[in-house]
Write a structure and sequence with these properties.
With about 260 residues, this protein is mainly beta. It is built from three helices and 14 strands. The strands form two sheets. Strands 1, 2, 3, 5, 10, 11, 12 and 14 form an eight-stranded antiparallel beta sheet that branches. The longest helix is centred in the last third of the chain and has 20 residues, at about 240-260.
Length: about 260
């Protein structure tokens, strides 16, 4: 079995799952820093920083050890008005029905007009440049009168009610489940205890690539968590119904044994 659980815990849906892809910012691959072409973990393609607009000059991708979500891959920009940090990678074989893409992120604290950050799920094959928001699914904060995370899919746009400041406090877990080839369920869980948000909708296309982008304020460096965007891990999992069935058989066997006695 992929995980060992108590009988009570194992009966909870989604608690035990098999990973088909996983990478963590703590992987030794990134011990010397984060660079394009690196490929830690398994099940994902190499990182691409294409589409980054390094205006003004500076470090736009790095590693942070001081984020509230722990060691993280970190995007940074160096102006309130220009520049874009971009980092993305392929999902080997694409995201399939029944699979769950999970990550934990931390967004900047201050907001700047007409600036923001997003997560794009696309068909690739590379990062979207600034201004290109085409995606099967997009989750974003764009400060044009609102600093709330929004969702864009084939059905249009929806507000999650989760504010940028809420996520900046402790981070947020992001769980995307494909419920069919064209539909999904998305749960955003702030890690400061705020109420999670769940949304179901229709994708605008297939997903085989994930792209993280930041175009926000002036960073003071990789550990400037107030102005940077952090990502601590990425996984793709499939709930293991076989494990739950095994636990069920265990309960059944126990009842049979007690009756025989």
């Amino acid at each position: 079995m992929a995980c060992a659980l108590s009988a009570a815990t194992a009966m909870m849906p989604g608690v035990c799952s098999g990973l088909t892809a996983a990478d963590y910012a703590t992987d030794p691959t990134y011990s010397g820093g984060w660079a394009a072409g690196q490929n830690g973990g398994y099940g994902f393609g190499a990182w691409s920083f294409n589409g980054t607009d390094p205006t003004p000059a500076g470090v736009y991708q790095g590693m942070s050890s001081s984020s509230p979500i722990g060691t993280s891959w970190t995007l940074a920009t160096h102006s309130d008005t220009t520049g874009l940090a971009n980092a993305g990678r392929a999902i080997t074989g694409g995201l399939l029905p029944g699979q769950i893409f999970s990550t934990t992120i931390d967004n900047p604290t201050p907001s700047h007009f007409f600036r923001g950050f997003d997560i794009l799920f696309t068909s690739g094959p590379d990062n979207n440049a600034g201004g290109n928001n085409t995606a099967a699914l997009r989750a974003s904060v764009f400060n044009y009168g609102s600093t709330t995370w929004g969702i864009n899919d084939a059905g249009g746009s929806s507000s999650t009610g989760i504010n940028q400041a809420t996520v900046a406090a402790a981070g947020m877990r992001f769980d995307l489940t494909l419920t069919s080839a064209t539909t999904y369920s998305l749960t955003l869980t702030p890690l400061n205890g705020a109420t999670p948000y769940t949304h179901s909708g229709t994708l605008a296309g297939p997903i085989s690539y994930v792209d993280f982008r930041l175009w926000d304020g002036a960073s003071g460096g990789p550990n400037d968590t107030a102005n940077n965007f952090g990502i601590s891990y990425m996984t793709i999992s499939v709930p293991e119904t076989s494990t739950l069935a095994f636990v069920g058989l265990g309960f059944g066997g126990l009842l049979f044994f007690r009756r025989r006695k």
